[in-house]
Amino acid sequence: MASYTEHISQVKNNLNFLQDISNELTRHYWDWNVTVCFYAGVHLVNSHIASTTDLHYRRHDEVSDALNPFNQLSLAKVPENVFTAYCHLQNLSRRSRYLISEKMSNRGEERFLTFDKHFQRSLIHLDILLEFIKNQYSENFDTIKVNCGISKNISLLNFTVS
């Protein structure tokens, strides 16, 4: 089972990779940017789970169940905004990986591509997860510079947008 420290190390690797792939040369790979955000988020929530339980979950639904603040049996509950951010990040990643709607209720047959606005949403959700871990565990993360076409008016604590 990976430890809290091992998960945090992987988060930092993912964030460094995100910074590298969001440069001007790879600007149009929005799907990969979103996917990297999600996997950084996966390791963030798994670091929390590793620090609060002796369990290691192998499926995304198990992780969601462990984090869910509305489930009385949740072993690693997080605040509602953190849980919601993780769920949204997971759904955006599903969109980018499978070309399906991030809305679970949408069963349409059309394909859903990933654009800069989806990357922006991913950064917002990932920022919430990073802040949770920073505040909960006094963890430090470097500010990540992302070079993309998203709105510079959004307020992010862990990212510098250019």
What brief labels describe this structure?
162 residues, mainly alpha, Four Helix Bundle (Hemerythrin (Met), subunit A), two-stranded parallel sheet, 5 helices, 4% strand
Tell me the layout of helices and strands.
Elements: H1 4-21, H2 30-52, H3 60-67, H4 80-98, H5 116-137, E1 144-146, E2 159-161
Parallel strand pairs: 1-2
> Beta-strand percentage?
under 5%
Residue windows where pLDDT falls under 50 for at least 5 positions: none
Indicate the structural class.
Answer: mainly alpha
State Rg. Answer: 15 Å
Q: What is the overall silhouette?
A: globular
Note the run of SSEs as H and E: HHHHHEE
Query: What's the overall average pLDDT, rounded?
Result: 88
Helix content: 55-70%
Number of helices: 5
Strand arrangement across the biggest beta sheet = 1-2
Number of strands: 2
- Largest pleated sheet: 2 strands, parallel
Describe this structure in words.
This protein has 162 residues and is mainly α. Strands 1-2 form a two-stranded parallel sheet. The relative contact order is 0.17. Helix 1 (4-21) runs antiparallel to helix 2 and helix 4 packs antiparallel against helix 5. Helix content is 56%, strand content 4%. The chain contains 5 helices and 2 strands, in the order H-H-H-H-H-E-E. The termini are far apart. It has one domain: Up-down Bundle (Four Helix Bundle (Hemerythrin (Met), subunit A)). The protein is globular, with a radius of gyration of 15 Å. The longest helix is centred in the first third of the chain and has 23 residues, at 30-52.
